[in-house]
Write a structure and sequence with these properties.
By secondary structure, the protein is mostly helical. Helix content is about 60%, strand content about 10%. It has a two-stranded antiparallel sheet with strand order 1-2. Helix 2 runs antiparallel to helix 3.
Length: about 150
């Protein structure tokens, strides 16, 4: 018969493990916000819920679960970087981040620099959505040119 140690003995280890996992999860979500656009993050969030339901129901080896896991893995290809996390009173807060695949573009967000955004664009949602797609294409081209240079 296998004896388990009392629950009180395991408490410090499980608490430490959960805290580390929470810190990593918080850092990863922050990096996703930096590397993935809004629509891709929404789809990934829905897929995460779907795969957790499938796993809960015992469908780990089902083709639909494999499909969803591969889609989530595909969404994570560009989530690469470094996150600085501040830990204080049981909370983890990302305070700095860097990534070679960052979607942040100073020209788009600055009021001082004339970027691609024209206030007239507010009249049509298609043009507004095209801004994020052009930015996605710019990132793809940068990545492709870096890979060719290697």
């Amino acid at each position: 018969m296998i004896r388990r140690p009392p629950r009180s003995t395991l408490f410090p280890y499980t608490t430490l493990f959960r805290s580390g996992g929470t810190i990593l999860h918080e850092a990863h979500l922050d990096l996703e916000t930096f590397c993935l656009d809004r629509e891709l993050r929404r789809i990934k969030q829905r897929l995460t819920t779907t795969v957790s339901e499938q796993i809960y129901n015992g469908f780990w080896f089902a083709p639909e679960c494999e499909f969803v896991r591969q889609a989530i893995a595909l969404s994570q290809q560009r989530v690469v970087g470094t996150v600085t996390v501040k830990i204080y009173k049981g909370k983890a807060q990302a305070i700095a981040r860097t990534s070679p695949h960052s979607l942040y573009n100073q020209e788009l967000v600055s009021m001082d620099v004339q970027g691609d955004y024209d206030p007239i664009d507010a009249g049509g949602f298609i043009r507004i959505n095209a801004i994020r797609l052009r930015e996605h294409q710019r990132i793809e081209q940068e990545i492709a040119s870096r890979q060719i240079a290697l």
